[in-house]
Design brief:
- By secondary structure, this protein is mainly alpha-helical.
- It has one domain: MetI-like fold (Orthogonal Bundle).
- It has helices at 14-31, 33-42, 46-49, 64-74, 80-111, 117-127, 136-146, 153-156, 163-176, 179-187, 192-203, 205-220, 236-244, 251-282.
- The protein is globular, with a radius of gyration of 25 Å.
């Protein structure tokens, strides 16, 4: 007869579980306060925006702030629909190209017999140390040589070769795609592109769904930074900044525009939420 273990198993009591969930709910509500305030302010009439001391919640909600947005944008000479189209086109096209290029590069670095691929991946990792500000001047010189200044490509091309996407997908692919599976596919006569589309992409869906979220969020908020001068090529966040510059009288409309800007990223987040958690845990990037 085996001796009973002398170690006791400690578990939380029901009261401890209740307290644990109360703390989590309170922390969640606290972090969501800016979002709630933004939504409430978007529905406040002008007299509630100017009241002192400021009120957190709205007492007489109105949709006037949303109705005024097209009128405020028309003063810029370009209809609101043009800015929306620019943002949607740039975000969708650049995100799709980014996922395609990053996954193909990760496939090569993870599963091919390419010489010096470990050295190349080291350079990919080193490039993660540089932020957008340090690359601004070199990028501008490159765009000038390519003659894409003040074109739609100045938004899309820089978003395609992202090292973050290559690193994330490569790490996930190393741990989730066995080499034996690809060898069996080669024996069955599958080519490289067939393996990529039929085997790799379905298996690494959590990784590229995570990349979809990250890329969509960054591209949806992109604004022209000294490379786009035509009003017809500017994006929706630019409209938000121009409305915000109107002062307190336009605070309601600015918040209304912010609420509209938040809807697509939140929608993408709910679609990819479970995939993000799986990818971060598999890629060794737990926060």
């Amino acid at each position: 007869m085996q001796k009973r273990s002398q170690y006791k198993r400690y578990t939380r009591s029901k009261a401890g579980n209740v307290m644990y969930f109360i703390i989590l709910i309170a922390a969640g509500l606290f972090t969501s306060l800016p979002l709630i305030y933004c939504i409430c302010t978007a529905f406040k009439p002008l007299d509630e925006l100017l009241v002192f001391p400021p009120r957190f919640l709205v007492h007489r909600p109105t949709i006037e702030n949303f109705v005024q947005i097209p009128n405020l944008v028309d003063k810029l000479g370009v209809p609101l629909s043009r800015y929306i189209f620019n943002s949607l086109f740039i975000t969708v096209v650049a995100t799709v190209l980014h996922i395609f290029v990053a996954s193909m590069a990760a496939f090569v670095l993870s599963k091919s017999n390419l010489r010096f691929k470990k050295l190349i991946f080291i350079f990919v990792q080193l490039s993660l140390l540089y932020n957008a500000y340090t690359l601004a001047v070199p990028q501008y010189l490159i765009f000038s040589k390519m003659e894409i200044i003040d074109t739609i490509w100045v938004y899309i091309l820089p978003a395609i070769p992202s090292t973050t996407g290559v690193f994330l997908i490569k790490q996930y692919m190393d741990s989730s795609v066995p080499d034996t599976l690809l060898e069996a596919a080669r024996i069955d006569g599958a080519g490289v592109f067939k393996m990529y589309t039929s085997i790799i992409m379905p298996i690494i869906k959590p990784a590229w769904m995570t990349l979809l979220l990250l890329s969509f969020q960054s591209l949806w908020a992109v604004t022209p930074t000294g490379t786009v001068f035509s009003e017809k090529l500017k994006t929706l966040p630019y409209v938000l900044s121009s409305i915000t510059a109107g002062g307190m009288a336009r605070a309601g409309s600015a918040m209304a525009a912010t609420v509209l800007m938040m809807i697509p990223p939140i929608f993408i987040f709910f679609i990819s939420q479970s995939n993000v958690m799986e990818t971060m845990s598999s890629a060794g990037m737990k926060g």
